Amino acid sequence: MMNESLLANKQREMEFLHHFHQLGYDLIDLGIVETFEWTKLSRDDLHLMVNRHKWQSGDDIYALRSDWTNAIVRYRKQYHLRADKIAYSGPVYSLQSEKHQLGVETFTDSIPKQIEVLGDMIAFMENKLDLSLSVAVVSHNKLLKKILSPKELEDESVRKFITERNPDALKYRLGDDHPIIALMEQAPAKQAGYIKENYPELTAHLNELAEWEEALKRKQVDYVYADMLALPNQSYYKGIFIQLYGQNKTEPVASGGQYTSSSKAFGMAINI
Hints:
By secondary structure, the protein is of the alpha+beta class. The chain has helices spanning 2-22, 43-49, 68-79, 111-127, 141-147, 150-154, 156-163, 167-174, 179-184, 191-198, 203-218; strands at 26-27, 33-37, 54-57, 60-64, 85-93, 98-106, 133-140, 223-226, 237-246, 254-260, 264-271. The chain has two domains: 1-131 and 260-272, Bira Bifunctional Protein, Domain 2 (BirA Bifunctional Protein, domain 2), CATH 3.30.930.10; 132-252, BirA Bifunctional Protein, domain 2, CATH 3.30.930.10.
């Protein structure tokens, strides 16, 4: 039985790579151990480093790969990789878990092209993995960045209370008159209207959010939910970020979003 399970996982991985190769994606494979220099760590590297298995030898830091997107961005910059669309597969390791990911990245600022890549991923999940996508949660990095200060966004207790939708704890931590409290007190369906009325400078981001909502609905996801209070699970997300859930699942089966490389980019990964 274990032999059959191992073979099935390897076959699924090969099917993924063959499938996206046939769609015109370039395939990439990178080493599990990454090398860093303290003086050249980016902000995103520092954020991820906290949760990595790492060790030091001389002036170099070595770490197990904890995130594919970060690794691909670093590789692309170092070796001037020109591929527009990339597919990959392999493990990532954090202090808490080990996951095997199948993922795609596209390096373009064209939202229709980014949405096309999202559609390729959803089609593979539904047609090749037989996953029925029940819920999509979509949000925008810029929303909470406007309402919270950088220090508040970095505060783990604040992030925890927002994730838990705990206004009482946030009032104690930030004060009764903090704008995040007023937003949280709005019904979810009215939060976008509240932001548009009180933060008109965010209207363009809300319109972009609506565009991705409509795209996900066209992909036949059962329920699409725009979450104004969602926090991205990676620091490098600079725009839209998305989580996809299977039927009766509490953890996302796939997640991704927009980030900045040498230009705007978008990536999505399946955890298997």
